[in-house]
Amino acid sequence: MEITEFVETLRLDGGLLADAADEAGPDAPVPTCPDWRMRDLVLHTGRVHRWATRFVTEPQETPGSFPEAPDVTDDELVPWLREGHHQLVLALHSAPADLRTWTFFPTRSPLAFWARRQAHETSVHRADAQLAAGVPLTPLPARFAADGIDELLTRFHSGDRSRLRPNAPLTLRLRARDTPGADWTVHLTPDAPPRTVSTPTDEESKPDCTVEGRAEELYLTLWNRLPWDGLTISGDASVSTLWRGRGGI
Length: 249
What we know:
Elements: H1 3-24, H2 38-57, H3 74-94, H4 110-133, H5 142-154, E1 170-176, E2 183-188, E3 195-198, E4 209-213, H6 215-222, E5 232-235, H7 238-246
Parallel strand pairs: 1-4
Antiparallel strand pairs: 1-2, 2-3, 4-5
Helix pairs in contact: 1-3, 1-4, 2-3, 2-4, 5-6
């Protein structure tokens, strides 16, 4: 995907997140983040947006410190979120293509990294906010959702911090039916981080478990935002239990 596509999705979902937060109110529980009220979700997202903006507008070599939570009233909370989101969108729109700044995954383009990461960060939390507000989830483009699955598998769950470690080796195939090429095989072992590869079209070996669905459903389920019963699971269904218990980021 192009950087401009990520920034546009960020722009749209940030506005929808703020709208849902406004509708639900600061004390609304967030069912997908059981320890949070809407206030916590807004404060987290607004701080992440400001943190990311700093790396784009003031290039850094280290992560530095995360912004402190602001002293804002309930009435000021959503406008504060909107302002930080707006500044992030502007920063990404106007940043030079050859931006050099800190990122927490290896990348050839820090600008592409921050646009991609903030688009997915905001989309997942927009879903949190809409579920908390009791409004329908706004559909995500299938290609964007597939990209988010790839980021989750090949970035977050490729490092030592991933807790996706079964008791015995197994393979998990994930396939988005509505997106050509969105097909991954994840090799899980007790002693090492998961290893993800694109599933070849002539794949002969049978995975221990195959999970299929629309890209958006698969994306939100793997982020533990939707229940697994919306997907088609064949083979060892205990893999879904492993993911629910250890797949959180």
